[in-house]
Amino acid sequence: MTVESTAAARKPRRASKRTSAAKKPQSADPQLVQLLTPEGERVEHPDYSIDLSAEELRGLYRDMVLTRRFDAEATALQRQGELGLWASLLGQEAAQIGSGRALRDDDYVFPTYREHGVAWCRGVDPTNLLGMFRGVNHGGWDPNSNNFHLYTIVIGSQTLHATGYAMGVAKDGADSAVIAYFGDGASSQGDVAESFTFSAVYNAPVVFFCQNNQWAISEPTERQTRVPLYQRAQGFGFPGVRVDGNDVLACLAVTRSALERARRGEGPTLVEAFTYRMGAHTTSDDPTKYRADEERAAWEAKDPILRLRTYLEKSGHADEAFFTALDEESETLGKRVREAVRAMPDPEPMALFEHAYADGNSLVDEERAQFAAYQASFADSAEEGK
Ligand SMILES: Cc1ncc(C[n+]2csc(CCOP(=O)(O)OP(=O)(O)O)c2C)c(N)n1
Ligand SMILES: [Mg+2]
Prior knowledge:
Mean pLDDT: 93
Shape: globular
Bound molecules: thiamine diphosphate, magnesium ion
Number of helices: 14
Largest sheet: 6 strands, parallel
Strand order of the largest sheet: 1-7-8-4-3-2
Strand content: 5-15%
Low-confidence stretches: 1-22
Radius of gyration: 22 Å
Helix content: 40-55%
């Protein structure tokens, strides 16, 4: 059974009064779920529909704009030497805001290191995302406050964490769902294959949300797979769907449907959000070494924010005052982020050993003692120099 057919069978589509769905053209490629074209035109997909108010549409736009502004600020802060590293989400705002806004508060998220837009949707203060990249803490937020796990840099490992967590959710009899984010490169990891197998055979309520941004650092997607990534799911016995990852409406509709399926006890879904990493892999990377400018330009024409803006303007769902106010809000956010980063206190050196083990560990104790002696040795040499 496909996720499309499940969704269609259980939920007869409503004809929307507000957006008069019946009259809209169909999306060009049924393999790629799209509800908003790059030109900002609303289209219909036979298996997915969405009916949002003007206020909800403006909300999605605001989320994307503020996320992009935050991301640009973080990139600039790295260039100014305030952060050691930054992994930009530029271009992936729709995939993250669409999927992030599909979640319920009681759902649980396992992100990679690039999910700043999803963090935003979960209510994690963006300034908290920066501590690890500044090197002043190991994470920066309490995962259980917002059901948003700490950033995970070991590629693909969080899909196993998500699967185990989802199996626990099912055992508890809860109807919440779990979502695991990962990339096209991560799809080649053994951990991801294992999590697919486990979640399928245990029917775990998990959505695997793969942002195929076309690159794994300098490796293109054709080095990861011979088949479209979403088709991998079939071999594991659960549905896969490819969504236009630059279309926030389609990402919202598809993720919502996959989460509902998980809640109903029908098991995992693989969502492949087809998108593009507009920037460098991280601030340590130079993409001009391995990809052509034309490729970036072609994706720029599919910009997720621009297409929603075009639609909002054409449909009259937002006026100039809205865009002006949002510009101001963006600048205020940028300033707040700058000030918060510069005000972050340097950690106490011995804090390095905290949070490694909940109940302590003899090896960590030994290392702590060695490091304390090392630190103290500087005090001795300062004395000798007098
Ligand atoms: C297990 C593991 N192997 C290698 C790396 C180094 N590494 C960091 S990011 C990355 C590429 C990941 O690409 P993808 O999954 O497509 O995610 P993206 O960065 O494009 O969002 C690699 C290989 C790592 N962090 N962990
Ligand atoms: Mg990638």
